[in-house]
Design a protein that fits this description.
Length: about 400
């Protein structure tokens, strides 16, 4: 990324301060009077036409820190990972890279992506290939798989970057990585951004941008209604695109909650694949000058998309940056990279059972009670437990069961 703007030097740029002033409905004269400087001096700061004394700059920053009403709470997480290790030594992958004992994984003959077998602990999955397949072994983790793997990383006292470095020690190739920003304060009003997109009030390095509305059933009318907006910047077939969407609607639908009760409001995902994914992860793990993951997120967002404030001139290059977008980028300056470990328990299966199976099971129970039959008991007695079920039982009833090296 050329001319990369970091979080540190953007937070109090003249562009950001101007957006704060407009956001608070203040004139340049009002700000100048409050700080005790001339309007001309303040204007020169906003325009960047001449350097100010450090003392004057500090006064401006202190003033807006008190006025700042756009507080944000955002966190960065790794939300999907696919790593190809060009070897055929499964024990090495389990012991030296994942650092989880092999017997903890359930082996089955699931064939995906052309691989011949799979080893999995819930959503942490390892695929093996034929001996003459140069791709070797594939490690794949979905969003929940990443949260589950963070439990092991915590036990091993390793970070994500440590894990990636261990992968690269064996010439690994990262073929996909999704980095997500969870926004708990709705720093970016997506409906307003969509309106500006429809009016062409933005510029982007992406050739395509699109959007999608989700649906949910109205509890009163039982009819489908529009709910949850997703905006896509770039093509899903490209090596890099972004998806900004209302995460609260997705979680509310999945967990049967009210939208307003979901803590996270929006999610901003940067999805990298192919050579781009490998490039990004090497930037993060560079032994000499690694890029901070929050700086990387900030840099890509700012480089690829900018929302604008239209003016009388028809030339977009003369339009100013839209204040809400500038405030959002300023909020990104407060990003922190976090892990959110989720223990591998039977909770996900329990939730599926409760939401999908229990209504039918209850109906059968009523039939059994009415007809004085024992169909349900008979089906339970005849059911066969697989290796996955036995390991789930062991992990729940034995809290001391350890599967890390």
């Amino acid at each position: 990324m050329k001319n990369k703007v970091t979080r540190k030097n953007y937070e109090w740029s003249s562009e950001y301060v101007r957006s704060l002033r407009l956001h608070n409905g203040l004139t340049q004269q009002q700000v100048a009077n409050s700080i005790g400087i001339s309007k001309r001096t303040y204007i020169s700061f906003e325009l960047g036409t001449r350097p100010l004394k450090k003392e004057t700059e500090q006064k401006i920053k202190a003033y807006f820190q008190k006025k700042l009403s756009h507080e944000t709470k955002m966190e960065v997480i790794i939300d999907y990972l696919r790593v190809r290790i060009p070897i055929h030594n499964l024990d090495l992958v389990f012991n030296d890279i994942l650092k989880i004992i092999r017997k903890a994984f359930v082996n089955d003959d699931v064939k995906r992506y052309g691989y011949i077998s799979r080893y999995s602990i819930d959503l942490i999955q390892v695929y093996d290939s034929l001996p003459n397949d140069n791709r070797g072994i594939l490690i794949e983790m979905s969003g929940q798989g990443c949260r589950q793997f963070e439990v092991f990383l915590r036990q091993q006292k390793r970070s994500w970057l440590d894990f990636l470095k261990d992968c690269f020690a064996y010439q690994a190739n990262v073929t996909r990585i999704d980095i997500a920003v969870n926004d708990y304060k709705e720093a970016l009003p997506l409906k307003r951004m969509l309106h500006k997109m429809e009016r062409k009030e933005y510029k982007s390095k992406f050739k395509t941008c699109s959007y999608h509305w989700g649906t949910q059933k109205n509890e009163i009318t039982d009819k489908l209604q529009v709910a949850g907006l997703s905006i896509y910047f770039g093509s899903m077939q490209s090596e890099f695109y972004m998806c900004f969407y209302q995460k609260n609607y997705e979680i509310a639908k999945k967990k049967h909650l009210k939208v307003q009760d979901v803590p996270v409001k929006n999610r901003y995902e940067l999805r990298f694949s192919g050579n781009k994914a490998n490039q990004v992860t090497h930037q993060l793990t560079d032994p000499i000058k690694p890029i901070d993951i929050c700086d990387l997120v900030f840099g890509y967002i700012k480089e690829y998309v900018t929302f604008l404030l239209p003016s009388k001139t028809r030339y977009k290059r003369n339009w100013l940056i839209y204040p809400a977008w500038s405030l959002f980028l300023g909020g990104v300056s407060q990003l922190t990279f976090v892990t959110d470990p989720k223990e591998i328990t039977f909770e996900r299966t329990k939730m599926w059972l409760q939401n999908q199976v229990m209504p039918t099971l209850k109906a059968f129970k009523i039939i059994d009670d009415t007809l004085e039959t024992e169909e349900i008991e008979a089906m339970i007695a005849q059911a066969n437990l697989g290796e996955r079920h036995r390991k789930m039982i062991q992990s729940v009833i034995d809290p001391n069961y350890s599967i890390t090296e």
